[in-house]
Specification:
single chain, mainly alpha, two-stranded antiparallel sheet, 13 helices, 4 strands, globular
Length: 382
């Protein structure tokens, strides 16, 4: 890449950052959607939410600019339209969720419908690396794998958006690192789209970094998770780079681990996994006495470390790339043990058991929320 091209891309990202910051400022002063503190909240003052609208609007402006102005994008039209349209539909429904509130099942169905749109436009995860077997063609199972991957990432981001700056800052860092990796691999569309995500997230983060003046809301968190998940498939199959699919799971390993482990732990404890709670690992980290800023910065450091791992991973041939996950998985396991021991000693969670308990009628230390009876965590500080 020439210096002129790099500076042009940097200026483009900076312009989107400025746009996102201005839109976020407008939302803080004009938006009437307010997150009132409750038993599940990690904030104590009413705070505007749906700030993710600024991220979304800036992203779509940037994506439209790429489509109109950038000859180097080189993504086949149906794939571009599928990515754009599915993200747009998810944004509309997520905004309605922020305004009126949707049940967990309704959100899941919406996510599945948007994933179905991606499949309809031909974006499919049709091959995956398997230990000791190399690259395995999924065939028809690729459609199911794509559906599961898109929904998993969308919810992981949504569930992790609960502390000031955590989701937005992690997204900005991950997008920057993904852009570096895909550029190394010869990307056009995904590299430039990563720049769009970086600028959009950083502009919002100006007002969301602890102490946050506005929260992202479902409209931002679900969109980001879905967009990253779709980009991982596009980068592997349809972008000029053909970047390894493993890069994105590694970048967000801490999000996927926290979400997956928490769901499993609560299911084993007999809890209703669709019910609101405050027992994700990052939430327990915060409840153990660490500030929003400290917990958020910890996740930033982990994101950068995983990003450096991803940079190294794409230089490793074949299935040996999977070995890069080992140290990060060991770190997550150690982190989990430390957090659960502390939380157990403070009575924040019941002891972990690997035998399924009978369902319980309530969640310890969290009062039922009659207004939102079947939702997972909603934005309470991110």
């Amino acid at each position: 890449m020439t210096l002129f091209a790099f500076l042009t891309h940097g200026a483009f990202g900076a312009a989107l950052m400025l746009l996102a910051a201005v839109l976020t400022w407008v939302l803080i002063h004009r938006m009437k959607i307010v997150d009132e503190p409750n038993e599940r909240s990690s904030h104590v003052h009413p705070t505007p939410r749906s700030g993710g609208l600024a991220v979304v609007a800036s992203f779509f402006v940037g994506l439209a600019g790429l489509y109109v102005l950038a000859d180097a994008v080189e993504l086949v039209r149906p794939y571009f339209l599928g990515f754009f349209a599915s993200c747009a539909v998810l944004v509309i429904v997520s905004l309605w969720d922020d305004l009126k509130g949707l049940g967990f099942r309704s959100k899941l169905l919406t996510q599945a419908a948007c994933a179905g749109m991606v499949l309809t436009f031909g974006i499919v995860l049709d091959r995956v690396p398997v230990p000791f077997n190399g690259i395995v063609e999924l065939g028809v199972l690729g459609y199911l794998a794509t559906l599961v991957w898109l929904i998993a990432m969308t919810n992981a981001f949504n569930f992790m958006d609960g502390l000031d700056g955590l989701a937005g800052g992690t997204a900005a860092l991950a997008a920057a690192l993904f852009g570096v990796v895909t550029l190394m691999e010869g990307s056009h569309f995904v590299y430039l789209t990563s720049w769009v995500l970086v600028g959009s997230c950083l502009g919002f983060l100006v007002f969301n970094f602890p102490p946050a003046r506005i929260f992202m809301g479902d409209v931002g968190s679900q969109f980001l998770g879905f967009a990253f998940a779709a980009l991982a498939i596009i980068a592997m199959r349809y972008d000029h780079s053909h970047t390894s699919f493993l890069v994105m799971p590694l970048l967000f390993l801490h999000f996927l681990w926290d979400t997956g482990f928490t769901i499993l732990r609560r299911w084993l404890a007999g809890e209703n996994i669709a019910r609101a709670h405050r027992t994700h690992l990052y939430q327990l980290f915060n409840r153990l006495g660490f500030s929003h800023r400290e917990v958020t910065l910890y996740h930033y450091v982990v994101t950068v470390a995983q990003g450096l791992g991803a940079v190294a991973m794409v230089r490793i041939p074949g299935e040996a790339r999977l070995l890069v996950f080992v140290p990060f998985l060991l770190w997550q396991a150690s982190y989990t043990v430390v957090i659960l021991r502390g939380a157990g000693a403070d009575g924040l969670v019941p002891p972990v058991t690997w035998r399924r308990r009978r369902p319980v009628a309530h969640i310890p230390a969290v009062a039922p929320d009659a207004a939102v009876p079947d939702r997972e965590i909603t934005p309470t500080g991110g």
